[in-house]
Every structure is written in structure tokens, then in C-alpha cells.
Model the fold of this input.
Amino acid sequence: MPTPTTLFFAGLLVALIVCLALEEKLHARKSVIAGVFAILSLFLGEVFHILPHGPVMVGGHAVDLPIYIPAIDWNVIAIILGSSLFVDVTSRSGLFTWIALRLTKASKGDPRRLLLYYGLMTVVFSAVLNNVTAMIIIGSLTGVSLKRLERPELLLGFLFIEGMLTNVGGLLTLISSVPNILVGTAAGIGFAKFFLVASPYVAVATAATLWLGGRRFQVPTLAPEERAAALKKVQGFDENDGIESRGFFIFGAIALLLFITVIATASVLPYVRELGMGWVALAFATMMLIKFKAVAERFYQAIDWDLLGFFAALFITINVMEHAHVLDWIGQGLATILGLGETVGSGLILATGAAASSVTDNIPLAAMLSKILAAQPDIGGDPTSPFWWSVVFGANLGGNLTPIGSASTLVAVTLIHKYDIPLGFTAFVRLALPFALMQIVLAVVYVLLFLT
Done:
């Protein structure tokens, strides 16, 4: 049974979710709402004596830090900050305009075909990069394409669908997301095995998401009589228009390829794997800023500080919830489902894990469930157990249920707002529910029919 303290902090977490859902009515930014709850959670955590104190070990040395500093996942903050800066500066080379227009030309001006291209690119980028970086790059390209096609009404649909697909693509490889790495390591699932098991589901879920998205957002396909005019229009696009310096363009292209390569291999590169993907993003952003070193502050002004502030505050709040054993309580509830057997239990673990990860950080949830599974004698030594895959699918796909379920969906919402398209918490959930439920149902069917 949960303690009164655990129940109290669980209620506080629910209150945070409710306030975020009422963001528009409260006339408050997400960073402010989350900031209030972070401050309140820390104070109440001290009142209830649940917060640890004392020095933190950093690089083998004891460092005295306030409790809320190590609570923040600085790697995520660095990835968002560095990737945003890198994309913003690199876009000045004309590279993203060039890529977007080449892609638009390949679609021959057909919006449905363009959606297919961007959807597939989102899945591939999410598989080899992290979801946040993939969403930032793809979202930037999408804006250019639809602006040139004079189809601003399709921006919401394209960006929303891409946000849904980042978490699908995040299932494709062992290194695509942190939950994958945690579960794969605990279960002893190799890279090739992970890909072979996950890829059939990813292929089906991607196709289904693109089909549903095309219908839900009424993304048209051109009639035969419209194709000639559309083709003539896109052939008139000059992808070289935005290139002011051929040298900087080439430098930007090389930097982007290196950025993607290093991010994709960061977990195995010597030295880099210890520094993390956040360091990679900041390093490449700094490298690109050298060209604009005298006016670098212009790029700092474009950083979405509200998004960074929200994540920092959310990490602090979730950390307090961990100390209040709210996540342990959730994990214990999921652990009781294990006794129901592979067929019923794995399906319920997937569904309830998805629901839990939609409102909490999926990283500690995946870590906790991995420990629970590893301790089970019939599961811990069996990498083929469907329970492992239930945790993987649930932890990743649950992020599509709410805008705070994953960093990439929140970035997608932020990009949507950048184009002055209103989309609040409840509006997002209403739009996302059919997509998320479809993806989760497909995952349950896949696990039950092919992995049990």
C-alpha cells in the first residue's frame, strides 16, 4: 500500500497535469506552470523530509550542489539547446532550404506524397539520431517546403504527424532512445536482434500513422488535371536562391553530415560516449557560431527559453516524485500484472506502461521496470520474453498521448506555436488520442501474436 506521503505527491503530479491542460485558461506559459510546481514540490519535499542532502559525486569528487541541480537531466537540456542553435545557424547557409526544395520537387507538388517523404525521413532520423534533434531538423525543413508550396494550412497536420512518428522511429534501433538502451542492456538484447524484432512493427505503424494523418488533416492528393500545373510550379523553384556563400553552404552540408554521424554513433565513439550527445550538440553549435562570432547574440535571442525552462522544472518535479516513491508505486502496480501470464500480462504491461509514461519521464519508469523484470527468475535470463518488448513499446509510444509525454512531441508543439497555430494541452490530447491508441493497439497485437 502506498504511504500517505506517496499519495499526496501523486495528487500533486495530477494537479500539475490538470494545470497544464488548462494552460490557455490560466493564461500562463508551460515554463511558469511547471516552475511553480517545481518550487512547491521542492518545498513540500523538504517539509516531508524525503529529499536527500549532502555532496554529490561528480567525476569521483564530492561536490556540494543544491538538490535541484542534479535533478535536471542536463543532457536533454544540452541536446535541445545545442541542436536548436546548430539548426538555426546552419539554416543561414541555405542548406535546409536547398534540401526542402529538392524534396518538394521530388514530390512534384503533391502534398500527400510530400507527407510520405517527410514521414519516412522522420522515422529514419529518429532511429539514428535522438527524437528531439530529428524533430527540430524535420520541422525546419517542413516549414520551408509548405511555405514554398503556399500550403500554410497543412503545417499543423505535417508537424503533428511528424511528432507522432518520432516516437515510432525511436523504436527502430537499440540506440534510438534511452528506454531502448536500458531495457536492451538489462535483457541482453543485441543491436541486430532489436532491429529485426522492432522493424516490422515500425513499418506497419508508420504506414498506419501516415494514412490516418492524411485523412484526419485532409492532406490532399492531386487530381490528374492538377498535376501538370503543380509540376510546373515546383520546377520553377530554384533551390540555390537561399545560398549566399557557396563555401558556407558546403561547410554547412559537411557539418550536418558530421553532426548526424557523430550523434548516431555517440554511444560507441571513444571519449564522446562519456561526454554524451548533449556535448556533441553544443560542440557543433559552437563550431557553427564561429562564423557569426561578432553577432552570436542574435541566435541566442531565438532560443526557446520557455521550452528549456519547462523541461528543467519538469525534471525537478519528477525527481521529487521519485523521492516520494510515486514512480515506485506505479512500478509496483505494474509488477503485479506479471503474475497474469505472458498473454494477458504483457498486453497489460504495454498499455499501462504507455499510460504511465504519458505523464511521467519514461526513462526512470523504464529503468524501474527493467529492474523488476530482471529480478523475475523466468524473465530475467530470457531476452525473448515478451515482457521486455512490452516495456519498450509502452515507454516509447506513451509519449504520444500527451504533449508532455516525450521531449519530441513537446518540441513539435513548440514548432506549431512558432507558426502562430494555437494548440493547447487538451486540443493536443484530442488530436493525439486516435493516433496513440492505434499505435498502442498495433503494438499489443504485435507482441501477443508474434512475440509470445
